[in-house]
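Journal club prep, shared notes

We agreed each person brings one worked example of a sequence with its structure written out as tokens. Mine is SusD family protein. I'm keeping it raw so we can talk through how to read the token line rather than staring at a rendered picture. Sequence first:
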Amino acid sequence: MKKLRIYIIASALLAVLISCNENNWLEETPKSFYTPDNSYETSTQFRQSLNYQYDLLRSFQWTLGGLKGGSAEGVIALALGDIAFGGTDYPDGKYNNFKAYFTPTSAPTLLFWQVAYNAIANANIVINRLELNDKIGIEDKKGFKGEALFFRAYWYNFLANLYGGVPLVLEESSSPRRDYVRATRNETYDQARLDLEEAITLLKDIDGVEDGMISKQAALHVITEVYISLGRYQDAINAASAVIDNPNMGLMTERFGSRASESGGDPYWDLFQLNNQNRSSGNRESILVLQYEYQNSGSSYGNFYSRCTLPQYFNAKVEGKDGKSVLAFTGFTAEKGGRGIGVIHPTDYFFNDVWGEDFDTDLRNSSNMIVRDFKIDNPEAKGFGEWMVKDGWVQEGDLLRNWYPFVMKFSRRGGFPDELYEKNTDGTIKTTALGEHILAYTSWTGSPANISYKDEYLFRLAGTYLLRAEAYLKNNQSDKAADDINELRKRAHASEVKASNMNIDLILDEQMRELYFEDFRVVTLMRLGKLVERTQEHNPRGENVGNNQNLLPIPYPEIERNIFGKIEQNPEY
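Then the structure, token by token:
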């Protein structure tokens, strides 16, 4: 009897095992960690996922590729072209030799690609999971999808500008793929168009979103550029006009914000002062502002452009009172914008030629925005208290990295938090012999002297005017293109341009004057097929740009691993 009972139990167990679905039996049901299935259930979870997109974009723009404080390898090169060259590796190092730096196997070529597709993959997950979700409200769904579509479009537009056509990935990936097919450049732009057109119907107007969040106007701004790339110039004009003519938008032409009462300033200067970037400060020109908040773990890094564009002035030498060389300056100070390292050295074309007859009147080239001289503050210097440039103390050996005009657009220039200053034993701020306030320095990744400590623009209305001028020009409406350019020049106190003189180079020059270092110049030049021409003409190392480099190469690792499909390489790589 006992044996029979054992036999029955064993048979029953065997039947269960035989009849069960093997796939279900082996399927894991996670209880204590996040997966795509349990990470996209609530509005809070979708917001957290999209916050990653904002952080990735901000990190890419601000840390110049270092992504939260690591090496800035690669992205610095996107700030060069006709506006700047590499100050740390002159004459023929990486930033000054695009032929050797941008190859199919180089790190920066792959970096841009990977960052973009990382963002696209995240956007695809959000879009797909929103379709599957029935727990969050309709309004939240609309907003989240609009943001995800915006980011996917932003990065596809970025990829198309740099590489031409790329593989289009529009679904959430559940397994590795090695069968990608490269779309054409137009198809890539068109996907960005489709995403943005839908996003525009889902996103709120700019006055209905918090500072730093994607709005309908941000999508309209980007789609203006996309329409231009597709040759749809009237559509581009219409999109830009929808932003420019919006009653809540407008160029800032009067003094405003945190330093409006200070003498010597102007509306253009006000745009870049602390707490003046967001619409909540009264700034009607801002479209999308990347956010920074001091001592907030959500913005633990700031904009590195002050570090990269300012000269390494604290290493500049002058003749000492004893006849030997001494440092011209005894520290890096708030008045000089912090600690520069001279890695992005603006070209002579930017510092001098591009301003033309308006050199002394254009507010964008004022002594507040581009400071061309400082007094020597080292008491041991023979020229102590005299001007470096005007009084002839600059040594030729310092002109490459240690001394050139100071671009102050991103520099806080005073008003740093109290704890960021060097202190005397009695707690007062250390000053130079000329009274400038000395900033602390620990390391390049965490130094208070290295970053801007303020919000910065990604898009502002001046850029929309420039895009509409480009669309008007290509739509054979030179008179209206000139009108848009002159709106910016009027604010800057620059002379008007004539419709008969309008061409794409004039618009690119105006973009340089208005938006210098706010955008990636190389991306714009590649979009227009002008990188090679203008870099060879205006960059002192322009000879090191290959004639094929109006596009980057497709990263070789992407071609190599794609064994079940074929991704063609760009010409002459």
